[in-house]
User: Fold Endonuclease/exonuclease/phosphatase family protein from Algoriphagus aquatilis.
Amino acid sequence: MKHLFLVLFAILVSMGSGNAQEIKILTYNIFHGENPNKPRTPNFQQISDLFVLLQPEVIALQEVDSLTGRHLALYPDSVDMIKKLVQETGYRGYFGKAMDYDGGGYGEGLLVKKGSKYHTLKLPNPAGGEPRVMAWVRAELKTLEEFYFGGTHLCHEFPENRKAQLDSILSYAETLDKPVIWAGDLNFEADSEEYRSIPSYWKEAGSEAGNLQNTYGKPEAGARIDYIWYDSRKFELVEYKVIDVPYSDHYPVWAVLRLKKQTQ
Assistant:
């Protein structure tokens, strides 16, 4: 535990005071609120404390449960995870249900300091498998600049699903009237056809930072499948990190972006 606090303290020190136009982003697959290293042990308090400590403007969460039966083994009562995180962290929250599961819902979550126009985009599944969605919000900074932020969890079974889901996300992003950032557990690696299919003006923070650390599994025997993508015509990368905490089978992925000054 002492090691974890030292790691997080180092991250906070490296962040510095920042700039009002800088946007701190986190994406995290939270394994439905359970610590996979300690079965039937909730990870809620650790992840909510992490969010309060790091204070990103926007957080994308994957594998989020809402009022499911399996939570009865983890919590005294079935839990709406996003509602509980809102209560504990002070963020505003949104749950985008991908599917019914065990008496409740399962899907994507967003935590946002300030936002509006929360909505869920249903994603295609041409090969079948689990339903997938993307949760969206129009987020607002203290400087009143606005941007769209989306969080998703793409298909883990079929490449044709992932490709169709990516096409849907990118097509939708082009219709939005503010700069766009999107993130999540995408279930493909950087050498995949899916990754290569993304247009070059979309930049992936880890690759741009030259940090190819695994985001899933063990650091030495895992995979890099969790990403933060941004429109490089609108943003520039300031910082990127994979945060080494053992609360899920994934690691939180962190980036700081800066809005570019737009010429008239």
Notes: The chain is about 20% helix and 35% strand. The mean pLDDT is 92.
